[in-house]
Specification:
The structure is a single chain. The protein is an alpha/beta fold. It has one domain: TIM Barrel. The chain contains 14 helices and ten strands. It has an eight-stranded parallel beta sheet. The protein has a two-stranded antiparallel sheet with strand order 5-7. Helix 2 crosses helix 9, helix 2 crosses helix 13 and helix 4 packs parallel to helix 5. It is globular. Bound molecules: alpha-D-psicofuranose and manganese (II) ion (2 copies). The site of one manganese (II) ion has 5 residues, from loops. Alpha-D-psicofuranose binds next to loops.
Amino acid sequence: MTELAPSTRSRVLAALRDQRIETASWAFGNSGTRFKVFAQPGVPRDPYEKIADAATVHRFTGVAPTVALHIPWDKVDDYAALAAYAKEQGVALGAINANVFQDDDYKLGSVTNPDPAIRAKALAHLIECVDIMDATGSRDLKLWFSDGTNYPGQDSIRARQDRLASALSATYERLGDDQRMLLEYKLFEPAFYMTDVPDWGTSYAHCLQLGDKAQVVIDTGHHAPGTNIEFIVAFLLRAGKLGGFDFNSRFYADDDLMVGSADPFQLFRIMQEIVSADALNPAAGIAFMLDQCHNIEPKIQAVIRSVMNVQEATAKALLVDAPALAAAQENGDVLEANAALMDAYHTDVRPLLRELRADQGLDPDPIAAFKGSGYYETVQAARVGGEAAGWGA
Ligand code: PSV
Ligand code: MN
Ligand code: MN
């Protein structure tokens, strides 16, 4: 890497030191496609063991101090005790993800179901998730609805929007002053004709109507191929309606692969929008979460690698020469403006990140350190008996 000016170096290192990335409990459990789940030895058997794995990721990276839960996959009797355990392990519980997509009752939808009794059941679960947030101290309720229809005419699109708005509003009313609702959108799947929250515009419109505590969450795997995600980021940031990300990467649909693996340049462009809007610091309130499944690769290492990928994209975004970029843009100098971004993107930031970790008292190479730590061998030996947790349990 060419020598950085000392002021740039300290600005970039300080920003990277403050960065926070939230891991997902379900990334540590067995997962697969609808064709096959390949079980891995040593995977957690309960939410406590998932938290222990998430804490391990934090121990080696220093920037992943919270872990998101999914309810009921992470159902326990005492959520305050779970939060206390997380604290003992050196992490905190993050977003609570509601699950109204894995019950026979929800075949025709959850909060948009034509049957009022099923809608009431779904709403009760959303409210239960806010009760859980009270116990865990979580700030964010993350809502994703698999609701939609498979055939034209199957149900009224407008009536379903009304039902959705009513459930969101009842849940919103239940939020405490320091709690937020993050509404996730997804183009398709499992519904194949029409999804009730298919895009950022739908999520944005509902959040706008609800109020300040409702914001949009962008799952990077939930768009049509070729969608300009950084445009969505920029638009929502400007509107004060970007609540966070579910990071992952994809080649085709909702592949849930490691973030930054399929298209590191896209991740850089997203982080560049974040950095240029001064929205990286946790004080800006954007949640940078991972939503991934590690079907064939070792899970803890994959989560560590994902955290590192986000750090690398962020470091590159922080290296963009903002005054040079602004000047080129102002002068209409297309090539210089583009070069300002490309120069930063092509910088090898790995030495800088190694330096950051050394400064934080961490091993500069988190993957090698994890592999050498014996953690995986220990849990493999300890986690025998009982049932391994899977995506959905
Ligand atoms: C749906 O595809 C989704 O992205 C939602 O965030 C769910 O909560 C999550 O996946 C489950 O992995
Ligand atoms: Mn998601
Ligand atoms: Mn998804």
